[in-house]
Design brief:
The protein is of the alpha+beta class and 190 residues long. The protein has four helices and eleven strands, in the order H-E-E-E-E-H-E-E-E-E-H-E-E-E-H. The strands form two sheets. Strands 1, 2, 3, 4, 5, 6, 7 and 8 form an eight-stranded mixed β-sheet that branches. A three-stranded antiparallel β-sheet has the order 9-10-11. The chain is globular.
């Protein structure tokens, strides 16, 4: 897997927007680092003191402010605020479908390549930890579990378990869509 393959897969389609939904708009960056061990997603653990999604694993991002100028600008701004990622260091590769999150957010995810290694600077008010997971490991069938119930939006609840982390909810749905589009991954019902 390389930058060109990811970019081609994402650019070959038009991402879907959730129309008619009156949720609060948010955006995230799905940063990928490329190194000798392969491609890795950069994820965060949100700080415990946050109002929303406290302690959960997520991609850097958040609410779109009116001054942002759009979802991509918001994702880059939030990534800089949360983990010190300079927008100039991000090569945007494409966008995924919007996903509902929690009870009242609709999230626009952007995929971007960033340098490896990178000197992240965590904002302790927003981010507890930053870590990476190998994309190839997420393709292993035993990593994904599907909950017995549906989300508030009527969607399956995915959990990717890796290196002691539980990556679930909207973040897991974004990962699953990325894996489907770029790697031909198929979520098998359990």
């Amino acid at each position: 897997m390389n930058v060109d393959r990811i970019s081609a897969a994402l650019q070959s389609r038009s991402p879907r927007d959730l129309l008619g939904i009156s949720y609060r708009p948010a955006a995230v960056l799905m940063p990928i680092q490329f190194g000798p061990e392969g491609a890795r997603f950069v994820l965060t653990q949100r700080a415990q003191g946050l109002s929303y999604h406290r302690g959960q694993v997520a991609f850097p991002g958040g609410r779109i402010d009116p001054a942002d100028g759009g979802p991509l600008a918001a994702a880059l701004r939030e990534s800089q605020e949360e983990i010190g990622l300079d927008p100039a260091d991000v090569r945007v590769l494409g966008r995924l479908d919007q996903v509902p999150a929690a009870a009242d957010f609709v999230v626009t995810p952007f995929v971007g390549a960033i340098p490896a290694p990178y000197r992240f600077r965590l904002n302790p008010n927003e981010t507890e930890a930053v870590f990476t997971v190998p994309i190839a490991a997420l393709l292993e069938p035993e990593r994904l579990k599907i909950a017995d119930r549906l989300s508030a939006h009527g969607q399956p609840i995915y959990h990717f378990y890796i290196d002691g982390w539980d990556i679930w909810g909207a973040t897991a749905r974004m990962i699953a869509q990325f894996l489907e589009l770029v790697c031909g991954y198929r979520v098998a019902p359990q």
